[in-house]
Design goal:
Layout: H1 2-10, H2 14-72, H3 80-99, H4 103-159, H5 164-190, H6 196-212, H7 222-326
Length: about 350
């Protein structure tokens, strides 16, 4: 193989030999550059993916803060901020799904997309429950005010009467209504489940007192007492509506908290997995660069050795012949089959 290569190189001009040598050096340099560039590009791409995943993690945290703010302010600002973050997160996860090649990591992104969909459904339930809860608050205020107004009319009328017992029975009803409102306000502002039953008991006590008053008071007050009774019943129904909406709100909040934890946990795992892939790619790029460098050095040395022999050996032979001729020795013939300048 080498003999065939040496014979063929021997027929190539010195200019071309040097051109081949320098061209090979440039080619090997380009090979090293390409290997490094490819490896660096892969590392940069992996870093960009990690940065994108990190931005999704921050978006998930922003979503949690927006949802907590929505709950704390009782939905006064509307669901727009949370829905906007949910849309951005879903869109970002779809983009990440197209960037990630590893099946296990792609499966984690799919789980995150499912978690976002469940989060969105739970927030829709919370939005509806919040609307119903605030509607119950308004009903509570209106029905209680109406009941108090009707009882106050009866109280004013009884104040002008002669029966102290009848007047005291109306005063007792007013106290029970105040106690009911106090208990209901404590329940609605705290939202604690244990405060619900005392509020209902206070309302029931007021209703029992109202049911007994028509038999104790003049007939002219029955209409006001009936309207007060209807208002107190509406008041109790509004408390039940508040309770149901509060339960639904808490259920939706628990679901969103769980899905948010899933999103953060999967994001953390995805970051760790992609970090491992990045480190693997970096190690692979480093190894490829080392291999390319070693091959370039080996081929460069081999090419330099071969081309140098193609030039130095015939020059040495010519030099020896010249020395013999200079010494007067014309007994040796030098026959060369090379077709380059040295031949």
């Amino acid at each position: 193989m080498y003999r065939w290569l040496a014979e063929n190189l021997g027929n190539v001009s010195v200019k071309r030999k040097l051109g081949i040598g320098f061209g090979l050096v440039l080619l090997l340099t380009l090979l090293i550059t390409f290997t490094g560039w490819t490896g660096m590009g892969g590392i940069i791409s992996r870093g960009d993916k990690l940065g994108f995943i990190s931005s999704l993690n921050e978006l998930t945290k922003d979503l949690r803060l927006a949802r907590l703010d929505y709950e704390a302010r009782r939905g006064e600002q509307g669901p727009g901020a949370v829905n906007e973050l949910l849309a951005k997160l879903a869109s970002g996860l779809q983009t990440a799904r197209g960037l990630i090649e590893q099946p296990s990591d792609a499966a984690m992104v799919d789980q995150q997309l499912a978690a976002v969909a469940e989060y969105k459904r739970a927030f829709a339930d919370m939005t509806q429950a919040t609307v119903q809860r605030e509607d119950a608050r308004s009903k509570l205020g209106a029905s209680a005010d109406n009941a108090v107004a009707k009882v106050s009319e009866v109280e004013k009328s009884m104040l002008q009467g002669d029966s102290v017992a009848q007047f005291n029975s109306v005063i007792e009803l007013s106290k029970l209504l105040q106690q009911a409102r106090y208990q209901v306000r404590g329940y609605t502002y705290s939202g604690k489940a244990e405060a619900e039953q005392p509020a209902l008991d206070a309302i029931d006590n007021a209703l029992k007192n109202l049911d007994s008053l028509p038999a104790k008071l003049p007939e002219q007050h029955i209409a006001n007492l009936q309207q007060a009774t209807d208002s107190i019943k509406a008041y109790r129904a509004a408390v039940a509506q508040f309770r149901d909406s509060q339960v639904n709100n808490a259920k939706a909040g628990a679901t969103m908290t769980a899905q948010g934890d899933i999103l953060l946990d999967l994001s953390k795992k995805l970051t760790e997995s992609q970090t491992v892939v990045r480190d693997t790619d970096a190690a692979h790029a480093k190894n490829m660069l080392i291999i390319a460098t070693l091959l370039a050095v080996a081929f460069g040395l081999l090419a330099a050795w071969a081309i140098t022999r193609q030039i130095i050996i015939p020059l040495n032979q010519t030099l020896k012949v010249a020395e013999r001729v200079a010494a007067g020795d014309l007994t040796h013939n030098l026959v060369s089959q090379r077709r380059d300048e040295l031949g």
